[in-house]
Amino acid sequence: MTAARRSHARRPSRAELLLLERNALRRRVRGEDFELFYGKFRGKKRRIERRPHSSEVTDADARWKTHGWVPIGDSFRRESQSGEFESSNYSVPHSNDKKITMTEESTPKWKGKAMAELPATDPQLTWEVLEDFCNVHKWLPIETCYHVEGLSGQPGLVRYCASTVEEEGVGDDAEKTTTIKWAKEKLLEIDPVQRCLTYEVGENNLGFKSYVATIKVFPMNQDGSKIEWSFVSDPVQGWSFQDLNSLIESYLEFMVKKIELACNTN
């Protein structure tokens, strides 16, 4: 009886198989994308450009679609040169996967700039002060600065800067403590013609992870000069951007007064 039934069983036609395949695929792909995906799946020679429904896409979509992979059901496939599809073993993420936007935010950098004018100081004299990289303690409110390594006036020159800072103790009767705050700073670029230099903060106990500053000297009017001090820094723990920006402004103001005093004395 079983054999008789099996002998009379009709194999589905190609059209019926395609219909079954189409219905199965429709259940696995969103409706408005079905026609595009089905055409690609059947090997039709046309370019498929799937537009996401919003500005959000899954991490998998963003990464795999870039390389020509098209999501078919629960996997990604792409068309080879022969017109057939290569299959990947990467699964489509479920709806509860983490979403990312096309402009994923990262920790912002701090960017600041301070400027000061020296109306009666020749730009070359101003530049000679800044060019003396390992003697910056003469012009800034720090206690010491000295050469560590590298050639004077050349990229790679490293200086050590330090100051002693008093810190309040914990509690009403606690005594103040003194701490040496220090940093090693490396000269990255220097251009005597354009009168500018760039340096970065390396090892330090100030909390800097990344800090790069550029100092430029510009001529102003006939006999004057102007200093521009710009910086890009990672956020510093325990500081605000305004704290750092105010520190640079105060340093520059102090420097300008020292330079003007030295030039007037001479």
UniProtKB/TrEMBL annotation:
Gene3D superfamilies: 3.30.530.20
A Pfam cross-reference name: Polyketide_cyc2
Molecular-function GO terms, alphabetical: protein phosphatase inhibitor activity
Protein name as catalogued: Lachrymatory-factor synthase
InterPro entries documented for this protein: LFS, Polyketide_cyclase/dehydratase, START-like_dom_sf
Species per Swiss-Prot/TrEMBL record: Phaseolus angularis
